[in-house]
Write a structure and sequence with these properties.
Elements: E1 3-11, H1 15-28, E2 32-36, H2 44-47, H3 59-62, H4 78-92, E3 98-100, E4 103-110, E5 115-121, E6 129-138, E7 163-164, E8 179-183, H5 187-196, E9 202-207, E10 213-216, H6 221-230, H7 232-256, H8 258-270, H9 279-282, E11 295-298, H10 301-308, E12 311-315, E13 318-322, E14 325-328, E15 333-335, E16 338-341, E17 354-357, E18 360-361, E19 369-370, E20 374-375, E21 381-383, H11 392-413, E22 417-420, E23 428-430, H12 437-442, E24 448-450, H13 461-470, E25 478-486, H14 488-491, E26 493-499
Parallel strand pairs: 1-2, 1-6, 2-3, 4-17, 6-21, 7-16, 8-9, 8-16, 9-12, 10-11
Antiparallel strand pairs: 4-5, 5-6, 13-14, 14-15, 17-18, 19-20, 22-25, 23-24, 25-26
Length: 500
């Protein structure tokens, strides 16, 4: 059994993990390792390979603060996002610290030594790999990479053609001249429909209920003009600030004036669709804007496909599937040669890693989130969960910055451990205040949020800038500890934690 000792273990080499590695190096130097279950860098952006895969966030705000996106292309493909993540890892020297094919199964904190023992498995060796570290930094995202959400659809097994979930897209699938039914109306469906419409005979988006969709330019014309005036680096910094402000303003406007913003979105949709298109049925959700995630159509690609007839929308529930298509509740048959089940993702808390203290497991669903980056009762642990209403990386960067400040504070005051201690009687709420179906289905397996600060996972970037970047690290709810050492210089023995 191999054992490695470092200061920090980072779990995950996706967007969060590579960003975290930059901040970890600033805090502890090269004494860290990144454990990644996949064989390539990128996490989500390596997993998803369906046609048209992209992000709904613009690259200027999705990029790291320390490695800004310097291209005027704003909405880019999943491949380019993964390449960007890898280029960041190369630039920082992080690639040398990543162990691919290492699936972390458990982590136990030893109070007597103030260190985590992290256990991982590999496909190549039956013996577990053990890493001991002072800090555990979880960057696992919140998607289950093994499976997507696949609800029961009556008669689906009787369908004569291929049935494909976007999370497991076969690279050799040829849709040329095929009739395709895409079941779903979330971000994946909004992405895949116009992409498939380029080669398929026809694509039908079959949705149970509509989603809010807005057009967004795939290339930032203002950034292009600014780059010619002040240079690419300065332009990218200004564009990043601009886009963060626009995204925040749009979200706040939707929450404060939902009726007015519903009208704005409807007017924007109507301008891009035929005059006889049934907006009320197909693009008017029952909920308010941003009760669930807003979907983006780069350069209006979805609306363009619907306008030119290469795609269509059917809003109804599925009655059953026949060998030649899908029968909806109205009795209409939607003919199909291929069915794509864009029925959503499955959430997974911290990659199914079992967390324990002194051998006693701590179910994460029983913990409270502290400042949206730590868990009550679990010492020296930091995690990253990004925003649902803005670019994921904005929160990931703030968590990394706060970790650096935390390490400096501990070093300055001689602390070895920290642990958030939950107050008694605090109201417990779902961690994420978003009604998206994929979140509602699994949120009870995640840590809880508290009814008051600092036990909430905030969804306001500017507020988090104040809390995580500006305000002092010390907090009454965060207890720091010191390991009582005996003859440390000689034998390195460490006794129990004395909590201050």
């Amino acid at each position: 059994m191999s054992v490695t000792d470092v200061e920090v273990v980072i779990v995950g080499a996706g967007l969060s993990g590579i960003g975290a590695a930059h901040h970890v190096r600033e805090a502890v130097g090269d004494s860290f390792v990144v454990l990644e279950s996949r064989r390539r860098i990128g996490g989500t952006w390596d997993l998803f390979r369906y046609p048209g895969v992209r992000c709904d966030s613009d690259m200027h705000s999705l990029s790291y603060r320390h490695h800004r996106w310097t291209d005027s292309d704003s909405i880019v493909s999943g491949d380019r996002i993964r390449e960007y993540i890898e280029s960041s890892a190369r630039r920082d020297g992080t690639l040398d610290h990543i162990r691919f094919g290492h699936r972390v199964t458990g982590a136990d904190f030893d109070s007597s030594t103030g260190r985590w023992t992290v256990t991982a498995t590999t496909e190549d060796d039956p013996e577990p790999v053990v890493v001991r570290a002072r800090f555990l930094y979880l960057c696992t995202g919140y998607y289950d990479h093994a499976r997507g959400h696949e609800p029961h659809i009556p008669g689906l097994d009787d369908f004569a053609g291929p049935v494909v979930h976007p999370q497991h897209w076969p690279q050799d699938l040829d849709l040329t001249g095929k009739r395709v039914v895409v079941v779903g109306s979330g971000a994946t469906a909004i992405t895949v429909v116009p992409a498939l419409a380029q080669t398929a005979a026809h694509v039908t988006m079959l949705q149970r209920s509509p989603t809010y969709v807005m057009s967004f330019p795939s290339r930032d014309a203002a950034d292009e003009r600014l780059a010619r005036l002040v240079g690419r680096r300065t332009a990218s910094a200004v564009t990043r600030v601009k886009n963060i402000a626009i995204d925040t303003a749009l979200y706040q406007a939707c929450r404060r004036w939902p009726d007015r913003m519903r009208g704005v979105i409807r007017k924007e949709n109507a301008a891009q669709l035929p005059a006889d298109f049934d907006l009320d049925r197909h693009f008017t959700p029952r909920y308010d804007p941003w009760d669930q995630r807003m979907c983006l159509a780069p350069d209006g690609d979805l609306f363009r496909a619907l306008s030119d007839g290469s795609a269509s929308v059917v809003t109804d529930t599925i009655d059953h599937v026949r060998p030649d298509g899908v029968v909806v509740s109205s009795g209409e048959l939607v003919p199909a040669d291929v069915v794509v089940t864009a029925t959503g993702l499955q959430m997974l808390a911290f990659g199914r890693v079992t967390l324990s203290v002194d051998g006693v497991e701590t179910p994460v669903s029983e913990t409270l989130s502290y400042k949206g980056m730590m868990l009550s009762g679990l010492p020296n642990l930091v995690f990253t969960i990004g925003y649902t209403n803005a670019s994921w990386t904005l929160k990931a960067d703030l968590v990394g910055e706060h970790f650096r400040r935390l390490v400096r504070h501990m070093r300055r005051h001689g602390h070895d451990t920290f642990v958030p201690v939950a107050p008694t009687g605090v109201r417990r709420e779902p961690l994420l205040d978003c009604r998206a179906n994929y979140i509602v289905r699994s949120i009870d397996t995640f840590p809880r949020a508290g009814g008051r600060a600092p036990w909430q996972l905030g969804m306001n970037y500017y507020h988090d800038v104040l809390i995580l970047r500006r305000r002092r690290v010390a907090d009454p709810a965060l207890r720091f500890g010191r390991i009582a050492r005996t003859e440390r210089a000689a034998v390195g023995t460490e006794a129990q934690v004395a909590v201050s």
